[in-house]
Amino acid sequence: MSLLCTICARGGSKGVVGKNARDLLGKPVLAWSIEQARETGLFDAIAFSSDSDALLEAALKAGADIAVRRPDEMATDTAPKLPAIRHCLEQAIAQTGRTPEVFVDLDVTSPLRLASDITGAVDLLRQSGAPNVITGAPARRSPYFNLVEQRTDGSVGLSKSADPPITRRQDAPRCFDMNASIYVWRVASFLERPAVFYPDTRLFEMPEERSIDIDSDLDFALVELLLRQRMQA
């Protein structure tokens, strides 16, 4: 089975300024994902997409095989990510002249994952026959038990109802927080209809300590602390 890895990162960031190139224990944040992809030994090529020439240069230096210049309209604060992923995939196919069966997209801001998480998600895709696999960690709150949403009139209620009502968290169906770390797609399914959820999408479970997405300075500090502890273990 041929596999491609895509990694997409914008040059601009408002939550943590310059986070994709920010130094994290001696190397830029983006380098962690590239190195994890390389460590798996799964991929025929690693394609890095960005609107920033500096990030593209840093990605090639860190070990990416293909640099894809993302169109500016796909790099705004409001631009959805799926079109950028598709653009990266299509450009990588054009540059290599090969269409992989499966591709994996890694989020740059999730450097706590392990290479084994990537291989585990790919294995789940292979074994299940599903069109795609996402990753997530067990949710701290359950929509059946203690996660509420606010209605238009200001009142609140459980996000999801059950009959009979669920009174213990242990009785609720398992729920997960998507951690946006790893996405695995069959290329044919994705090109036909790019989506995160299909009728038979599967989830590869990751622990909470490997599921922090850098979206604030506090997130960055936590990621740095956990990575340092891992390296010292």
UniProtKB/TrEMBL annotation:
<dbReference type="Pfam" id="PF02348">
    <property type="entry name" value="CTP_transf_3"/>
</dbReference>
<dbReference type="GO" id="GO:0008781">
    <property type="term" value="F:N-acylneuraminate cytidylyltransferase activity"/>
</dbReference>
<dbReference type="InterPro" id="IPR050793">
    <property type="entry name" value="CMP-NeuNAc_synthase"/>
</dbReference>
<dbReference type="InterPro" id="IPR029044">
    <property type="entry name" value="Nucleotide-diphossugar_trans"/>
</dbReference>
<protein>
    <submittedName>
        <fullName>Posttranslational modification protein</fullName>
    </submittedName>
</protein>
<dbReference type="InterPro" id="IPR003329">
    <property type="entry name" value="Cytidylyl_trans"/>
</dbReference>
